[in-house]
Amino acid sequence: MTEANAIVFVVDDDEGMRRSLQNLIQSVGLRVQVFASAQEFLRSKPIDAPGCLVLDVRLPGLSGLDLQKRIAEAGIEIPIIFITGHGDIPMTVQAMKAGAVEFLTKPFRDQDLLDAIQQALERNRMARKQRAEIEELRERFDSLTPREREVMGLVVAGLLNKQIAGELGTSETTVKIHRHQVMEKMSAGSLAELVRMADRLGIPTPK
Amino acid sequence: MLKVDSFAKRVPPVVWQYALAVVSVAVALVITDVLEPYTTLRTPLFYIAIIASAWFGGMGPGLLALALSTLAVEYYFVPTAFVPELGINGGPFILLFSLSGLLACWISVQRRRAEQALKEARDKLEIRVEERTSELRRATEDLRAEIAERKRAEEALREKANLLDLTHDTVFVRDAKDVITFWNRGAEELYGWTREEAVGQVSHDLTQTIFPAPLEKIMAELNSTGRWEGELIHTRRDGTRVVVASRWALQSDERGKPTAVLETNNDITERKRTEEALHKVQAELAHVTRVATLGEMTASIAHEVNQPLGAVVNNASACLRWLAGQAPNREEARQSAALIIADGHRASEIIGRIRALIKKAPPRKDWLDINETILEVIALARSEAQKNHVSLQSQLSSDLPLILADRIQLQQVTLNLIINAIEAMSGVGESPRELRVGSGKDDSQGVRVTVRDSGPGLDPRSLDHLFTAFYTTKPQGMGMGLAISRSIIEAHGGRLWATANEGRGAMFQFTLPVGGEKVS
């Protein structure tokens, strides 16, 4: 069960608050790791598991919003739930724009936090799944020959076999064979599926 | 002594004495020789010479005169002076003559000695009488001078006593048994008893004195230094009370035994009343500024209280979850409850601290640890610092002596300096905002507290006005914070001042004198 694998990180400088969050999250059977400061969190070893971050906005040294920026810059994908003693609107807007899952004001209802954590973990799980899928697609794409990649690019651009043959200066039959190979190697059941794959891989469509 | 000397001078020198013996015998010889034809007497003049020589010269010249006379009589007169009718021949005559001469000489010397001794004794007596007389005269003169001196002193004393009546202060003298012996007009006016009524009374009983310290302690100081100063409360004849600034001076006799105490009292009832009113106003002002400062921090304080409350809610929710379901986890639930209790205590501590600062309490001095006092303030100001992105650090020196001070007032001063520093740094942009609160020993064995910031520092032009009431650089400021802070510190016997911080910003520091005991 992936649920048991999931881990919740908590960064709060207030020891009592930190312990209570740990207690609450543990009570629903989730793994928790707590940190007293943003720096402490950044120094910790990354864990390969679905997770989310419960982050206090106001921290000594690096603030919660600063940490959010650092995480984004480092390309780490982890959903963030902000908690604060008293959040003002500009702060909330900034956090949400930067991709925060939720912004909770202390004291919050336990269910609100736990819901937000579940939502964040779901989001992270999805993201991890998508990333895995893209990696799979990338592997398939990498197995194509250069000519096959050229054909694929033109196919997803919506060109007919005849047009592709004209474009590449080969026979229509040859194009047909390449096209078949592409569909096979990419495990695409239909043209529409192949187009979606190309889209997710970010293959540029030649003009 | 002078007389004795002159008497000694009158004694002829030895040479003259012997010369007299020789001359007198020669004269006797010549005269006897001249008178020889007219009389048969040959010896009388020689006797005279012997007696005279012995008289003036003593035994020596006397014997010389006797010897010379014997020779002269024998030589010149015996052969011719043989007087057969007397039946005396020459030999026995000379013997008789010399014996009688010797007797005459001895008697003369003895007489002379007796006379001289008598004379000496008389002279001495005279000298002694004279000495005694002059002594007596001197004593009489001294006595007369002393009497005059006493009269003058008495006069001066009377004048001084009259002067003591002129002063507005009350002056009275009490003897070793506290019985009043002098009571001036000022005392009559202040207390209402006349001199006749007061003199003879026991002073502390009469005025129902209330002492600022145990009387034994006061007396010990008076006896060791000869002086005492302090405030006393007396009750007047009409029953009303009066506060006096009292000065005591001790008078002792030659043996150092205390004989009397001069007590000078000054009515300070009115002054005390004014001072008390002033203190009350100052305390009220301090309270108002304290509450105003806390008012500025409301948001931060709310956050500070919210933290433990949030923790309580979380732990309580967790507790319910641990208990829910098929297999309740009692151990986790129990631990959750323990956490709730701890958080509840923490919340009430914070509220207690705030309430203490808001409470209108009369100033009260206790022995306290300055570091503890500072840490409590830092706990309150922490949120405010974070809100303003200020890093708040404390560098507290251990081994500081305890100080006798009002905790709330010192916290007010520290809080005020911290809030000022945070506000000063709110406009410094990107540069680091550092606030350091330190404690340490002062040069003079007291305690020193410093609050340094990395703000824009102090405008030299405003330095003079910083501590003036109603002077402020803040748009919402009352301008009372530093003025009140300084008056609080000065009331504790310390100093509060501002200087530029090393590097950047400003440094405010205050010192407090110490009481003695060390923090363990």
Give me some keywords for this one:
heterodimer, A: 207 residues, alpha/beta, Rossmann fold, Arc Repressor Mutant, subunit A, 2 domains, 10 helices, B: 520 residues, alpha+beta, Beta-Lactamase, Heat Shock Protein 90, five-stranded antiparallel beta sheet, five-stranded mixed beta sheet, 12 strands, 57% helix, rod-shaped, disordered C terminus
Chain-wise SSE layout:
The complex is a heterodimer of chains A (207) and B (520).
Chain A: H1 2-5, E1 7-11, H2 15-27, E2 31-35, H3 38-43, E3 51-56, H4 64-73, E4 80-84, H5 89-97, E5 102-105, H6 110-142, H7 146-156, H8 161-168, H9 172-185, H10 191-201
Parallel strand pairs in A: 1-2, 1-3, 3-4, 4-5
Helix pairs in contact in A: 7-9, 7-10, 8-9
Chain B: H1 2-10, H2 14-35, H3 44-57, H4 59-77, H5 90-166, E1 170-175, E2 180-183, H6 185-191, H7 195-198, H8 203-207, H9 215-225, E3 227-235, E4 241-252, E5 258-267, H10 269-296, H11 298-323, H12 330-358, E6 366-368, H13 370-387, E7 391-396, E8 403-405, H14 407-425, E9 434-441, E10 447-453, H15 481-491, E11 495-500, E12 506-512
Parallel strand pairs in B: 7-9
Antiparallel strand pairs in B: 1-2, 1-5, 3-4, 4-5, 6-8, 9-10, 10-12, 11-12
